[in-house]
Design brief:
The chain is α/β, with parallel strands linked by helices. The chain has helices spanning 14-28, 66-74, 76-79, 105-113, 135-148, 163-179, and strands at 3-9, 32-37, 52-60, 63-64, 84-90, 120-125, 127-128, 158-159, 190-191. It has six helices and nine strands, in the order E-H-E-E-E-H-H-E-H-E-E-H-E-H-E. The protein binds flavin mononucleotide.
């Protein structure tokens, strides 16, 4: 049975949480999954062993994680010939209009920078975890929240992730994977908003 590699990278665990939820839904739908952090991929990992791939990365100070860029650069050849999907996790997406992949500047910039065009992309709002940040990050994020109308109470954490949207994305992915056995159906780029 085909297998999808689910690779994520983040700092405080929200991207992992989202990827695990997607993995759970795919498994329940009968797909075989392999899940791993991009930074902890074993030496023996071989992308050729998988039929498709989903990569998820959070944003830190305006950029997706370096290991995400590195992985895509290193595997550009293989990524070009397999069904591939991507999602971005950030706080800008707590605003509904920024969840639209076309209207999320982080995702748009990222797609211009990488040698890969995923078949489907999405953007999910992450979590604001003031109580877990180091002092400097806490102050920086608080300032950004103040400027953009977000929560500024550093004693409170807020999860903005819309789990219904995550479920919807996983459902679309499941359909894509089912269609992947008919390659002529998966050549178009789909955006999920
Ligand atoms: C130090 C730091 C920098 C961040 N920079 C941004 C940013 O530039 N834009 C944004 O929308 N969100 C930013 N975020 C929010 C994260 O993307 C969000 O909290 C996400 O849930 C983190 O997911 P992770 O736990 O998987 O890393 C930042 C968070 C931290 C802690």
């Amino acid at each position: 049975m085909p297998q999808i590699a689910l690779l994520y990278v983040g700092c405080e665990g929200q991207t992992r949480k989202i990827m695990e939820r997607i993995g759970c839904i795919l498994t329940q739908s009968g797909h075989r999954t392999f899940i791993s952090s991009l930074t902890e991929l074993s030496e023996s990992f071989c992308l050729h062993s998988y039929d498709s791939i989903l990569i998820g990365s959070s944003i830190r100070y305006g950029r997706h994680h370096r290991s995400c860029y590195q992985f895509i650069q290193q595997h550009a050849g293989q990524l070009a010939v397999m069904p591939g999907y991507f999602f971005s996790v950030n706080l800008t997406a707590r605003k509904p209009e920024r969840r639209d992949p076309y209207n999320n500047r982080y995702l748009q910039k990222f797609l211009q920078q990488i040698p890969w065009t995923p078949n489907r992309v999405s953007v999910f709002a992450g979590a604001l975890l003031y109580t877990r940040y180091h002092w400097l990050d806490q102050q920086m994020i608080r300032l950004i929240m103040k400027l953009t109308g977000g929560p500024t109470d550093i004693t409170e954490d807020t999860e903005f992730t819309d789990w219904n949207r995550v479920r919807e994305f996983a459902g679309q992915l499941s359909e894509d994977l089912n269609k992947a056995s008919c390659p002529q159906l998966v050549n178009s780029v789909a955006h999920t908003d």
